Fold this protein.
Amino acid sequence: MTPYAQTIGRFKAAALAALAAGLLCAAGAADDPAQRLANPAQEARARHLFQQLRCVVCQNESIDDSQAEIAGDLRQIVRAQITAGRTDKQVIDYLVQRYGEFILLRPTLTPGNLALWLTPFLAVLLGGGYLWVKSRQPAVEDAGLSEEEQKALEEMGVADQDMLPPHSGLANAHGAVAIKH
């Protein structure tokens, strides 16, 4: 192995170790040991629920990872509910009733949520379909000048409509400059 490859390997190992240490420190700082439940099985259930619930301030962090004060309050609520003998489903239902489905990191699949997630894709598909249909239609053909318009051009001394300068101010019989497609 070349010295360059060894240096890169050491750098990757050091970066990975620093990342792991940072994650462990953050996870440890998010919860006060004095607040933990005395029963290890109940604390494990609470930790499992913490990972499923969203911090309403941080939005994309679980309440287990969040440092926000509201996340600490939510952890206390979960622990109190578990201590009161509630099941995991009852605890989650209680929090959803109180904060709405937004509190779940993985929302349930309902028709409303499905519509919310599928609407952008449906809009892109409909827009693309519309553009495809429009691109398949034939272009409008130039009907040319009427006999009256042709006579007016000949009287002005212009034999061919295409020979007019683009902004000459000479208009057709209806007051608009003819544009050829």
Notes: DSSP finds six helices and no strands in the chain. Confidence is low (pLDDT under 50) at residues 24-30. The longest helix spans residues 3-29.
